[in-house]
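agent: user wants the full assembly modeled, not chains individually. Plan: 1) parse entity lines 2) check alphabet per entity 3) run joint structure prediction 4) return tokens. Steps 1-2 passed, two entities, 892 residues total. Proceeding.
--- entities ---
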Amino acid sequence: MMKLGGLFHPTGNHIAAWLSPDSQLDAGSNFQHYVKLAKTAEAARFDLLFLADAAAVRGGDLAALSRWPQYMAYFEPTTLLAGIAAMTQHIGLVATATTSYNEPYNIARRYASLDHISAGRAGWNVVTSSNLDESMNFGRDEHFSHETRYERAREFVGVVRGLWDSWEDDAFIRDRESGVYFRPDSLHTLDHRGTHFSVRGPLNIARPPQGHPVIAQAGSSNDGMELAAETAEIVFTAQHTLEKAKAFYDDLKSRMSRYGRQPEQLKIMPGLNPVIGSTREEAKQRHAELQAMIQPEVGLELLSNALGGFDLRGYDLDGPLPGTISAENTNTSKSTVQSVLDMANRENLTIRQLYQKMAGARGQRTIIGTPVDIADEMEAWFRAEAVDGFLVQPAVLPGDLDVFAATVVPELQRRGLFRTKYEGATLRENLGLTRPANRFTKAGSQ
Amino acid sequence: MMKLGGLFHPTGNHIAAWLSPDSQLDAGSNFQHYVKLAKTAEAARFDLLFLADAAAVRGGDLAALSRWPQYMAYFEPTTLLAGIAAMTQHIGLVATATTSYNEPYNIARRYASLDHISAGRAGWNVVTSSNLDESMNFGRDEHFSHETRYERAREFVGVVRGLWDSWEDDAFIRDRESGVYFRPDSLHTLDHRGTHFSVRGPLNIARPPQGHPVIAQAGSSNDGMELAAETAEIVFTAQHTLEKAKAFYDDLKSRMSRYGRQPEQLKIMPGLNPVIGSTREEAKQRHAELQAMIQPEVGLELLSNALGGFDLRGYDLDGPLPGTISAENTNTSKSTVQSVLDMANRENLTIRQLYQKMAGARGQRTIIGTPVDIADEMEAWFRAEAVDGFLVQPAVLPGDLDVFAATVVPELQRRGLFRTKYEGATLRENLGLTRPANRFTKAGSQ
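--- prediction returned ---
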């Protein structure tokens, strides 16, 4: 069965979304807006909603940024999802947090807490952070190197998982008769001493309902894929062609055996930006209208960011990208830079065409068409075993989520590709992921 | 008007609370339990609910701890309060977080986020942490010294407040016509470089509805009082006699002028542990029943903790405390240790009597009597200007909160001492605290 997530950027995925009358203007500080999105996605039986994050405002040209509100001012994801957890019952809640500027003990607690509040629906999207703006909010004048970031992330995830096992599942017997609340031998001290972290433990919260909250990742670099093969259960990735998506899928899944993992224990969900019309013509027109709303200074700023901060001002907008840009000379996500360069070369785009293309979908694949067209594409990729599902990023929120839920989801359900009711009670159960055993529990002791 | 907060320890304040049939047995991981408490307190027009916290399980003798579940395994407060925010409308939500093992940028974000989710009801109880168990979860083999902790805390709070001012209140004009979402000159970079922290900013969330979430503190040492005089808006303190409470109140409020602050901008709310009966006899019996439930190994463990880890095993339980214990030779809260020693001396208590007394109220003042008796005591302290209100810690939850809300609150209301409806929309408004101006906003510019 296909998996569906919703990646809900505040006013929507399209860079000009806030200019559309279908968007919630104050999305970044409107809690009820997110509750509405979550309820719509839950009614449509989405597996999860997914919140991106960074620990800084986007840096750049302030005049351009003032016209581009996405990720300048918005909710912190774990608190927002805890609020949403109280208002929903089934949908998974995946929040991003960085391993570069947090402590493993604090992250382990917060996600365990979210998992208890939501009765087993929490997920953690592990990121290593990718920009200097974040570093400078945490006492550093320079960002960790790519290598150090991944080394830290790997150790960090290991510590967090170890902490989640501090208490055995049946630790709390709560027996008023004997006066014993927990079994003393059910509490375990991690005593981790590693390269980047020393964490004794135990964690001061009961083992999460899911055992471990679900781990998501988005890194598509070699280091990122290796980390994902070892630790991730959901991978979010940008894929523009079926061939590349299939290659990525096969590559990543084949790496898992090295870590003793089965391929079905990781769900690969590329981003999908649907632009929907009741006819193809209407869909195209809808897309054209959104593209026409893009302010040029915003498009240029977005492109500069995607290229690791390369300043494009002064270059001819109707000429090609300067040849001096490469994926190697930036300390941002190499795979992101490379995918932008690939796109420009593949389609021979000018700077203006490139930023218009990117601004519309923020680096993700756009499909423009009828609900049947979109379901056809999704089905083709799914049947080709190039994906396990999709992370849907509606262009304008809440409007385009409503349309997707009302049109594409029923079409997928009609084809038997997507659930009509939730299979389980937890995110892990709905995704078909195994509940991890506690490393400290002796076989046969339970 | 008197202020009332609820300090809700998972199963209740009494150390044997979980053994009472009136407690919620799985309180530490039962979200709906907390929602119920919050709703009860809100219906009774409490100003706030307050969650204690530590970043470690309590250390100590595991056999004893297994009979004493308080603060071994429980929710992380900011996520829990975000969930509760979604289910309530008026009550203030104050969560504890330490300045020793967090980063100011992360704390500023989380509390700002909670303030937005709750539409202006967030508060931060600033603690510096007091035990080695926490240090060892964060890469340190020893705890920061008392002096360093307070120096860090002072700088930390300053940075957080500065970050909350990153955006001016009217920054977001969201003007679709002009294409401008925020005024570029309304975004401010803190550029803090201090002894313990370097934080550039700006914060990536809009200024909180309250300007700044309300700052609470509980330190009663000289350093703690000085920090409170400078930065706190609520002070939680343990006071056992009217005279000492009055002296503390006058001392703390008199320190505020040094920082250009008015006395009414800080609310002093001692802890209050009411044991209520419809007659005095019934209240006494209720208390005796709870005391009888205290397991000896638990009482001894509690006392040892309050004395900075001094191991009391082996001493005669029916003799006095050993004379070698002093407040100076521990790196825990000196004022806590001293208050325990004072209590033992004042009433000439044996070890057993002392732990029974402490175990019942966890260091806070207990009043045993009818609703009228309790209201009398509260009124006397309030009219003597020894307190601005109380932080009520029901012995057993949810049972004793229900009783307090149904009996003592109406009595206070009848006397005109406590509100019958909320005065404002935010915690700050209900407490009568001024909304802080943004340090970056130029006079007359708004």
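agent: reporting back. Residues 146-164 of chain B form the longest helix (19 residues). The first strand of chain B starts at residue 3 and ends at 7.
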